[in-house]
Every structure is written in C-alpha cells, then in structure tokens.
Amino acid sequence: MSRVPGWLGRVGAGLTRMSERLEQRREEARRDDDADDGPVTHSDHARRPLDDPAAHPTEGPTEEGAGAEHTGAPRSVVVVDRPDPAQAVPWGVRVAAEAGWRLLVLAGTVWVLMRVISAVQLVVLAFVAALLITALLQPAVAWLRRHGVPRGPATALTAILGFVIMGLIGWFVTWQVMENIDNLSDQVQDGIDELRNWLLNSPFHVTDKQINEIAKNLRDAVGANTDQITSAGLEGVTVVVEALTGILLAAFSTLFLLYDGKRIWQWSLKLVPAAARPGVAGAGPRAWRTLTAYVRGTVIVALIDAIFIGLGIYFLDVPMAVPLAVFIFLFAFIPLVGAVVSGALAVVVALVTQGVFAAVMTLVVVLAVQQIEGHILQPFILGRAVRVHPLAVVLSVAAGGMVAGIGGAVVAVPLVAVTNTVVGYLRAYSREAALRQTPRPHGATSSDAAPAADRPPGPPKTPEPQDPPADGPPSDPSPA
Prior knowledge:
The radius of gyration is 44 Å and the shape is elongated. Residues 40-71 and 458-480 have low confidence and may be disordered. By secondary structure, the chain is mainly α. The chain starts with a helix and ends in a 31-residue tail after the last helix. Helices cover 76% and strands 0% of the residues.
C-alpha cells in the first residue's frame, strides 16, 4: 500500500504534463489559424460552415476535433470573400467609362458656352470684329510709334483713317448700286424676255401658257405672303438697329484695343491660374501674330481678287463692275463659300444683262483668278503661319454659319487658325517642361543619356591613325 500512492502520483504527474503539451499544441494551432485567416470578425463567423468548431467556440470539441487536437493536425477554414467591384469590371469597359464621362462634361461645357454666346451674340461678334480690325490697324500704330509719334495721337490717327476708309467704301458701293439700279432693272427685264423667247424656241417644248402659269403662281405666292413680307420688313428695321449698335461697339472696342491692348492682355493673364500662366503668356503673342498674318494676308488676297475680276467684267461690259468688285472683296473674307457666292453673282449679272457669251467669259475670268489665288497667292502671302486643312475650313465655316450666320462664317477660320497655333505651342511647352523636370543622369553615361541640347561639349575628336597596329585595339575617340 505504501507503493500505490507513489504510482498514482507519477501517473497523475504524467497526465498533467501530457495535458500541458496538448494545451500548448492547441494554442500553437490556434495562432497559426489566426495568422492565416486574419482577425476573425462576426461576419467571418457567419461565413464559416456550420460544422466548423471555430464557429461555435462555446461548444465542446467533437470527436474529429478532439482527434485533430490530439494529433496536432492544422484545421482548414473555408472563407468566401466577394471580389472588388472595380476589379470585376473589364479593363476596356473601365477605360470607356472614364473617357465617356469626361466627354460628357466637355460637351456640356461647350453647350453652356454656346448658349451664353448666343444670348450675347451681338456683343461677341462686335468684339471679334474689333479684334480683326485691330489686327489690321495695329502695324500702322506700331510704325507711327517707332517714328516718334505718341501713343494717343498714333492711335487716334490710325483709327480715324481706318474708319474713314471703310465708310467711304460702304458709301461708294451704296452710291453705285443706287445709280445703276434703274438701268440694271431694265437689263434684267430684257434678259428675262430673252430667256422666255429661248424657252419657247428650245427643244424642251415649253409653251407660252406654261410660262404664264408660272408667272401667275409667282404673283399669287407674293400676294399670299404679304404679311410675312411686311413682318420681314419690320425685322429688317430691327436688324439695321442691331447692325448700327454692333458697329458702334466694334469702333469703341477697336479704339481701346489699339490704345491699351498690352495692359488689357496683362490683366487677362491674372485670371489664369498661376500654374498655367507661363504657358498662356507664351501662347498669347503667337496667337496674335497668327491672327495679324491671317487678316493682312486675307486683305491682300481679297484686294487682288477684286481688282482682277473687276477689270475682267469691266472689259466685258458687265454693268456695275465696281460694286461687283467691292462685293468680291468683302465676300473674300469668307473662305471657299464667299468666293463661290461672289463669282456666281457676277456670272448671273452678266447672264441677264449681256447674254450667254458674256456669262461664260465672266465664269472663265472668275475661275482663273480664284485658281491663281488658291495655288499661288495664299501659300505665298499667308505662308505656314495660318495653314489650315481644307476640310477644317469647310467644317468651321459651316458650323460658324449655323451658329452665328454670316458673322460666324467670317470669324470661324481665323478662330480655327488661332486655336491650332495655341494648341501646338502648349503641347510643345508641356513637353519642354517635362524634360526640364526630368532629373539629370549621373555617372559615366550622363553625357550619352542627356538631351542633345543639354549635353556638355566634349573634347575634339582625335584623328584615327591610317595604319593601326595589328596587335592593339582600335582607338576609341571620346564622344563629341
């Protein structure tokens, strides 16, 4: 009996040590599971399977769990996580969505801007016209300033002389039209009678009754639309008032732009964010040079067209040759479309007054002068400063005409030319800024990796020997 307590004591001590080792292994397995699965939250318990012992920590271990605890085998935990929504969307769809909402924002901004411009269309067109006139007259102000004339008198003299010349041109055109309107109406009536006789004797078998019915329908249409014609006359009065208002706004804007254009530009730069101010400050003078070159070149080309086409129709005895030449000069400011309209007007006047032969010869003169203008004069006078693709010219003139009528068609092409210059300069400026911010390379290959403009000059190349030694390596001159 004396030995039984000692034996029981040793068995109890062994069982105690075994339970401590099992508890230690259980704690190690639990720490491994926590390290693999992260912190266990309530949602993690909800996602564990029902037969997982870890999901019910208050319950006792099952037989399989007890066996795993005794054997020390790691437990497998099934965790089902949903993927990130941003990662589930395909890359192409994400790129298209990013580009799409940016395009929508840009389109909305352009739409709002066009609505604002349409609301103040008269003011915008007057200011744009003032910019074009300033680009035409500013070289004269600069020439007077270089010859010692103060800024105020130089501006006043140039503005008064410019507006007087434009007013005289408008008065001369009106005077010529009013002087020749009676003669032109008689010649038009004679031309209509000749056209009627030609139709009666033509192979189209047109009868006198059909011609009379057409004339009667025209008279009925005019009588039925008398109210609309009257309202159009009233709208014409409104248009005249708006035109006079626009002329006054353009005159005052031109005067102040000629006198104080530099300070106005410097004030405008303060509205630009500081980060973008250097680029805009560099793009502004280049845009102004482009606009000045466009206006001066267009005036010279239009003057040459008007002189040569006017001389041609004058020698063909077409009436109102001088007013037609002035119309050709004015319509030349609308690229492509203006030349077609003014040439067609000259051909129609020649047809109804002088006959088919004079009309054909007028068409030949117009086409010859316009071909010389398009292939020789414009590339030589305008140069590369305002080179715009013909498709861009056609689309811009059409869009400008739809938005703002004739005024929009006139300012569309210079606006596109200026935009092209500004965008090209800002692209080059951003590229140069990126190169300046790039850290310079160091080490033996720094001169090779540096840009050519920043690369330090190296020693002059040494001439290679004519007969290098056969047993030595070829000479390796240092890079220039």
